[in-house]
Specification:
3 helices, 17 strands, 4-stranded antiparallel sheet, alpha+beta, 229 residues, single chain
């Protein structure tokens, strides 16, 4: 069972949402004005305010960005890189980077989850690669390889390599990755952002201790998903 260590300071709006929120507000205001003033409607104005206010709050919810700090020793610890739900725990053949068997743990992010992504381990970024692809539903097995995705390969201080893959889905249309090759990375730092929900896969060495179960909810930068040997 996963361990959740919560120490959440505050919630802010992610910088990736700045332009989206601005244009959404202008669009909603324009639509409300046209519907109320151009068309002959008997709907009370306050109902327009409520309806479009709720619509904007839903969009605002997509870009929540809690400030979190992992409260514990990070040595050989793998934390959840995203809020969501565990949809895959299995051994797979990884033939692009490792060319051997790996333990894959996947987290599916719904539209209602925080969409910021965190580094799952402390270490050094060995490579960052973005690959275009299809738009399968993110929870499908083939989405990991066939969908648009961004890979971040990290080497931990103990010399073990961990791959974190951000995957776009049927709704998500933009993956943002902040990781840079040859830079040090740490738990508590943002790896990137996936707009409007999708999936994050973590590939670990065989023999890593799994600390979560299928269907379990995760909190990014808080839930321990595995322990490296």
């Amino acid at each position: 069972m996963g361990i959740k260590l919560k120490k959440i300071k505050k919630i802010r709006i992610h910088r990736e949402g700045t332009h989206t929120l601005l244009w959404s507000a202008l669009f909603i205001a324009l639509v409300a004005y046209i519907l109320y003033n151009v068309f002959d409607t008997k709907i009370p104005f306050y109902l327009f305010i409520v309806a479009f206010g709720v619509s904007y709050c839903i969009i605002l919810n997509f870009f929540r960005c809690p400030v979190r700090y992992f409260n514990g020793d990070t040595e050989n610890i793998v934390i959840a890189p995203a809020d969501g739900r565990i949809v895959v725990i299995e051994e797979v053949d990884e033939n692009e980077y490792f060319h051997d068997r790996r333990l894959m743990i996947s987290i599916f992010m719904s539209l209602w989850n925080v969409h910021a992504n965190w580094f799952p381990v402390d270490g050094k970024v060995l490579s960052v690669k973005h690959q275009n692809g299809k738009w399968h539903k993110a929870w499908l097995p083939k989405a990991s390889m066939e969908n648009e995705h961004a890979d971040c390969l990290i080497e931990t201080p103990s010399g073990q390599q961990v791959l974190c893959r951000q995957i776009a889905g049927a709704v998500a249309r933009r993956i943002v990755t902040y990781a840079k090759k040859d830079e040090d990375c740490y738990i508590d730092e943002h790896l990137g952002f996936i707009k409007f929900g999708s999936r994050v896969d973590v590939f670990l060495p065989i023999g890593s201790e799994v600390c979560v179960r299928m269907g379990q909810s995760t909190t990014g930068d808080q839930t321990i998903i595995a322990k490296l040997k």
